[in-house]
Structures are given as structure tokens and as C-alpha cells.
Design brief:
α1 crosses α4. By secondary structure, this protein is of the alpha/beta class. Residues about 1-20 have low confidence and may be disordered. The chain is globular, with a radius of gyration of 19 Å. It has helices spanning about 30-40, 50-55, 75-80, 90-105, 150-160, 240-250, and strands spanning about 5-10, 60-65, 85, 115-120, 130-135, 160-170, 180-190, 195-205, 210-220, 225-235, 250-260, 275-280. The strands form two sheets. Strands 4-3-2-5-6-12-11 form a seven-stranded mixed beta sheet, sandwiched between helices. A hairpin with a 2-residue loop joins β7 and β8.
Length: about 280
């Protein structure tokens, strides 16, 4: 029997990504069903322990920007953090809520420790001023702010909701602008929930604007049927000094820059860029 192919696209299809005016939040709704599967094969959980240690030092509620499917939020909450996560993508948040339901299924007495998820734009956080002693921005979430004004708005919003002396932890992904451009490369294959998944990816760089654009095609094979899911993701990368200057303009002082999740000092060759800043 010939396999049937159906396409579900959040963007007009194309052979390769191309620079165009768009928003950094686009693509994440379509990405939601595949996000955890892909990250389990790439990042995994190697950053979670670091954020858990950070959250344990907070003397109040912790705000996580771009909480997505709850990959970081849920372990922090299970460890006792009073965690509030925000994300613009409702499909991502739906998966986060499902993760919470699974995690607390056998712990009904721990309801108070469940994270609270809020659908919101991180450029205009819907919280009262000075609400949080700690704000976390894991795994490159600030790199989804693809225009300078988006980053300025977000840092201004965080500066408003964080308490004086509060900690703002930022994790940047340094290798994104180093990706070579290519078209239609098979990046991952594997099984997920009874389906065979293949990720076919194309990458383009707009170096003038510090943008890296990924066009992703997830081919899902299940019970003799093939479905193709297409979406684009765009990231903007600033250097550590440039991001530090932006933080200082927003009223933060940079206290430490780390080069890995074990606290080693940062340098230009580091695989991870972590900035820990304090609100003045």
C-alpha cells in the first residue's frame, strides 16, 4: 500500500530558509510535539541541576521565562521551588501542564508545590512590580528576541518585576551563529510514542543582523501514514560583553559569567554562556 503524505505547515513551504521579516515567537506552536524528543537527544537534562541549585537560593517565587514544556520548571518545583513559568505558546504550555499532572500523580499532598504556568509575552510580563526575587532565562530563550527592541523591552520588563537585589540568571547558546549553512540535511532519526520521526533541517545565517534561521521538517511515520510538519525558528545571538552592556542599561549589574553548568569561569571558547546579574 502506498503511504499517504499530509503537510501541516505554519509557514509557506520552501526548499531552504530565507531571511524575511518575522517574529521570534513564530514556529514554537508547531514545534511543541517534538521539542522534548529533540532535546532529550541533544541538551538532555544537563542544565537542570544548575537551575535547581540557583532556585534553591531564592527567598520567594522564581519566575522562569520561556518555560515551554516544563523541562526545567517541573524539576525545580519538585525540588521545592515556588515556580511561575511564562510562555507565549499555548501548545507548549499544554504539554507543561501534562508533565505536571504526570509528575504529581502519586503526590496529591504536594499540590502547593506545583508550578504555575501563565501564557504571556516576556516583553510585557503581566506581574506586579518587584514580585520576584529571582528570574531565570534558561537555554537561550533571550535569543528568540530577534530585534534589538524586543530584547530592550524584555530586560525592561524583567527589571520591573524583579525585586531590588534580585538575581537574573541567563543562559545563552553560543554555537548557534557558528552553524554552517546547509539545505535539507537529515539531523535526527528515532522513535517517539509509537511513531518513527525524522528531522530534516536547513540553516541560513544573516550575519549582519546576528540571526540564525532554522527551517525544520519533521516527518512522522505512524501506522502506514506519513505526516510532515514544517516550521521555522529564528535566533539572535549577542556576545557576552554586548549582552552585559544591555543588562547594565536596564539597571542590572553583572556579578558573574560562567562557562559551564558546574560554575567554571567563562571564556570565548566556552560551550555555555551563563550570566548572573543583580537588580540595582
Amino acid at each position: 500500500m502506498a503511504k499517504r503524505t499530509r503537510q501541516f505547515s505554519s509557514q509557506p513551504s520552501a526548499d531552504s530558509p530565507r531571511p524575511r521579516r518575522r517574529e521570534g515567537w513564530q514556529g514554537w506552536d508547531t514545534y511543541a510535539p517534538f521539542y522534548d524528543w529533540e532535546n532529550a537527544q541533544t541538551l538532555g537534562r544537563r542544565d537542570v541541576a544548575f537551575w535547581r541549585r540557583m532556585a534553591a537560593t531564592a527567598t520567594g517565587s522564581v519566575l522562569e521565562l520561556g518555560c515551554g514544556t516544563g523541562r526545567v520548571s517541573v524539576p525545580l518545583a519538585k525540588a521545592g521551588a515556588d515556580l511561575v513559568g511564562v510562555d507565549r505558546s499555548e501548545p507548549m504550555l499544554a504539554r507543561a501542564r501534562e508533565r505536571v499532572a504526570r509528575a504529581w500523580r502519586h503526590q496529591p499532598s504536594a499540590v502547593d508545590h506545583r508550578p504555575l504556568f501563565v501564557r504571556a509575552d516576556i516583553r510585557a510580563l503581566p506581574f506586579a512590580s518587584r514580585s520576584f526575587p529571582m528570574v531565570l532565562a534558561p537555554y537561550g530563550i533571550l535569543q528568540s528576541l530577534i530585534r534589538p527592541r524586543d530584547l530592550v523591552a524584555t530586560l525592561t520588563s524583567v527589571a520591573r518585576v524583579i525585586q531590588p537585589g534580585g538575581t537574573f540568571g541567563i543562559d545563552l547558546v553560543p554555537d548557534v551563529p557558528k552553524w554552517r549553512e546547509y539545505r535539507n540535511r537529515v539531523q535526527l532519526r528515532g522513535e517517539s510514542n509509537g511513531a518513527r520521526l525524522t528531522l530534516v533541517e536547513s540553516v541560513a545565517q544573516d550575519r549582519r543582523r546576528h540571526l540564525t534561521m532554522f527551517e525544520q521538517r519533521y516527518i512522522e511515520q505512524r501506522a502506514g501514514e506519513v505526516r510532515e510538519h514544517r516550521f521555522d525558528l529564528t535566533f539572535r545571538t549577542l556576545s557576552v560583553p554586548a549582552m552585559s552592556r544591555q543588562l547594565e542599561r536596564a539597571g542590572f549589574s553583572v556579578g558573574a559569567v560562567l562557562g559551564d553548568y558546574h560554575g567554571r569561569p567563562w571564556d570565548d571558547r566556552a560551550d555555555v554562556w551563563i550570566i548572573l546579574a543583580k537588580r540595582g
